[in-house]
Amino acid sequence: MNKKELEIISRDLRKDIINCIYNAGSGHPGGSLSVIDIVTYLYFEKMNISVENIKDKNRDIFILSKGHAAPAQYVALAKKDFFPKEDLMSLRKTGSFLQGHPCAEKCPGVEVSTGSLGQGFSNGCGLALSKKMDSLSGNVYVILGDGEIQEGIVWETAMAGAKFKLNNFVAIIDRNRIQLDGRTKEIMEIDPLEEKWNSFGWNVVKCDGHNFDSINDAFNKLHENKPTVIIAETIKGKGVSFMEDNVAWHGVAPSEKEKDIAIAELSK
Question: Which sequence ranges form a coiled-coil region, renumbered to this chain (predicted)?
Fold first, then answer.
């Protein structure tokens, strides 16, 4: 797809995120909106993932390690025809397969259940290693939140990825600088990120996480002998003016009026 087509898909998926979180009455709009451009690029441009090949051992694998941003993955899966779009309105409802965090046992297209921060990243490392051991093709792409990388399991996994030279293992950090109840620099500073990942033996690439040219350029810089981490500079709540860079929108649903304003902004 060209850049314009990806921008159109991303805009529409942003509206789907707002609508399904509003309908649920709960959820995490800020982090879902910050990561949706990267999710769009991966599902509709980069990865060989489809309903038809989801059991193919040589497929790419996607893991949303920051599982609270599940709406971003769900709207992409619906767009990819893993389930009907109308099912998005069952988000977080009792008995729904669209739980608050992705569940591999319930949701079609979800490879790994996530929610406990760092869990998806460590699972991804194991899957990338198993692909190597079995001489399988396909990469493992894992999206992490920048608050999430305060977890020790993330750095244990980073050591393992480098040790086993997992050049099929790609971490993407949604660097929006806001976590659950504040800014990362105030709660637990994670900078200097580039230097830290370099010291752990990773290939480090940076990009603008809302610009498809920049995103594409980053994903074309994977290393042939190392795992790669892409530090994507993003904005929490991107696309909705009153949500952008606003701590208050980490985990709260919009009111009907706020939902209507958001959809109107995204429809311009």
Answer: none
Kindly report whether the global pTM for this prediction surpasses the value 0.90.
Answer: yes
How many whole angstroms separate alpha carbon 184 and alpha carbon 147? 6
Angle between helices 70-79 and 3-24 (to 10 degrees): 120
The alpha carbons of the chain give a radius of gyration, in whole angstroms, of: 17
Q: How far apart are CA 193 and CA 231, in angstroms?
A: 8
pLDDT at 128: 98
Answer for the pair 235, 244: CB distance below 8 angstroms, yes or no: yes
CATH number of the domain enclosing 227: 3.40.50.970
Signed CA dihedral, 4, 89, 73, 246: sign only = positive
pLDDT score for 1: 82
What is the tally of structural domains in the chain?
1
Q: Cα–Cα distance between 98 and 35 in angstroms, integer?
A: 18
The parent domain of residue 162 ranges over 3-266
CB atoms within 10 A of CB 72: 29
Measure CA 249 to chain center: 17
Q: Position of tokens 């599940």?
A: 70
Residues in the chain with pLDDT values less than 70 = none
* Assigned token pair, 14: 């942003």
What digits encode the pLDDT tens for the residues 202-244?
Answer: 999 999 999 999 999 999 999 999 999 999 999 999 999 999 9
For residue 193, the model assigns a pLDDT of: 97
d(CA 185, CA 188): 6
